[in-house]
Amino acid sequence: MFGWNGRILYVDLSKSKIVSREYDESFAFDYLGGRGFAVKILWDELPVGVDPFSPENLLVFATGPLTGIPGPSTGKMVVAAKSPLTYGYGDGNVGTLAAVHLRKAGYDVLVVKGKAEKPSYIYIEDDNVEIVDASDLWGLDTFTTEKRLRKVHGASIGVVSIGPAGEKLVKYATIISQEGRSGGRPGIGAVMGSKKLKAVVFKGTKDIPLADSPKYRKLAAEAYRVIREKPGYGFWRRQGTMAAVQWAQESSVLPTYNFREGVFEYSSNIDGYAMEKKKIGQRGCPLCNTICGNLIKDVDGEEAELDYENVALLGSNIGLGDLEKIGKLNRLADMYGVDTISAGSAIAFAMECSEKKIIEDRIEWGDFEAAKSLLEDIVNRRGLGDLLAEGVKRASKKLGKESESFAMHVKGLEITGYDCHAAPGMALAYGTSPIGAHHKDAWIISWEIKTERLGYIRGKVDKLIEFQRIRGGLFESLTSCRLPWIEIGFELEWYPKLFKAATGLSLDLNYFFEVADRIYNLMRAFWIREYKGEWSRLMDYPPQRWFQEPLTKGPYAGSKLDLEKYDMMLSWYYEARGWDDRGIPTKSTLKKAKLDYVISTLEKYVRLPA
Ligand code: SF4
């Protein structure tokens, strides 16, 4: 086999057992890598109904056939587990040297199980794998942890680590690398913390086996050149995702005051042009020539990274219109190892609870000091922070008093940076995202606002599935960053060519989309297996606020979602996917996707239509 290393490394922290297993070609061809490998391993090897914080949960670090081979934005890996936030399938991708080194060490996947007796880290240097005492690192932030590990193991290693949030089991703790690369929003960092695993250090020195190495190198060099010469490249390098702030404001989709509105009165203070005036540098993932992290000095003069999502959620959504202060909140979140999006949503939820006197604490919109101290309370699970560390879904259930209507999540995962009062297609994208509310699978909002924006039309469902196949399937399994394609216009047709030079297999895009459908059906089956009789189509609904409270400001004032029409689009989506009216795949859909083995398990828990 070329392109894949063909080996999975298993580390059992309870038994201090380390084994490496070869996998067969069908695993590679049917699931490709990254998310495909992760969900297949979780389906096959995770006991049903396991507590996400039990030692039995599996923590999967998965790469794909393009990972780590110098080519456009291929320095990414998927981190996955059963989520403590949603209790369903959870994953995220992180751009890190760790992905490159995992592959160069001779593995495609690392699976961690069990729980260490004391804080530990895993050190992987090719065939030498050790579990090392990390007692002196426990309690440290992710920046300091990585610095210490580089001192011990050398500057060129790849490191992923957790901060205090992961150690204290904050349900949306993430895994951090290189002071700002973050992944695993549905609490994958907390799963790592539950295993007492502080970090993983990767050092690989081997060559990744390629079918045609000279051809791959030539193609990759050409691909980097094509990207550099695209018309939007210069502007992207100037602003990156920060350009989206102005676009979101003009389009009335910028999350504001806990997704009450889509326009923010101070948006020009926090947009890409405001950022450019303060910009001191850039930061990004390995092997990428479209790096998108913009650096500024925060309110204390320290380096802070900005991108659209953290500016939207820690800025406009909490009423804060100051980039240096947003930068500080983002820097702290990365240091503590907590997701900026969910943290921003939790703080906004608390501000609204305060405004409505549902809680006694007084936390005003836009109050930076209050937001900062709440973030610290969340990470350290103190007072109100302890409740918010559970995520807005659980917090609202506990608080009651109609707070569930403005707890902004889908399936328990907080919503990312796009208000959907006037964007039904994007609302459906959030509703059907396979990890809970996230845009990575189907960011159709840019397309939607250029078309029949307020329409509930079949074309939106088709576009949504097309995007899920590309973004959630192809990119998440190869594993490669989607941004050169969606933002710069780097053509999709490059990927089968790069794939062929890497693996020797000549497959067209339709093959990748078939694999994507297999992965989507398996992720859905995982949710149904874990939720058993509790699964219902209501799990695929966006939050009540967007149906009940219209926008009051901006060009779309008066707009809100229509429940009946949303339901109609959801039914079209199920029909197109071959799922029944509960959102459960039929037997024939599963057979068509080569998932026959799933049927008997699902039949134990739900009635499966033919
Ligand atoms: S475009 Fe941004 S997110 Fe994607 S690989 Fe490059 S730096 Fe990472």
Please give a structural write-up.
- The chain has 610 residues and is an alpha+beta fold.
- It has a 6-stranded mixed beta sheet with strand order 2-1-6-3-4-5.
- Strand 16 (409-410) and strand 17 form a beta hairpin.
- Helix 1 (25-31) crosses helix 2.
- The chain is globular and about 60 Å long.
- The two termini are 37 Å apart.
- 60% of the residues are buried.
- The model has no long low-confidence stretch (mean pLDDT 97).
- It binds iron/sulfur cluster (SF4).
- Summarize the amount of helix as a percent range: 40-55%
Number of H/I helices: 26
Report the uncertain regions: none
Helix and strand composition category: alpha+beta
Percent in strands: 5-15%
With strands numbered from the N-terminus, the spatial order across the biggest sheet is: 2-1-6-3-4-5
End-to-end separation in angstroms reads: 37 Å
Largest sheet: 6 strands, mixed
Report the bound ligands by name, code or SMILES.
Answer: iron/sulfur cluster
Form type: globular
Number of strands: 17
Radius of gyration: 22 Å
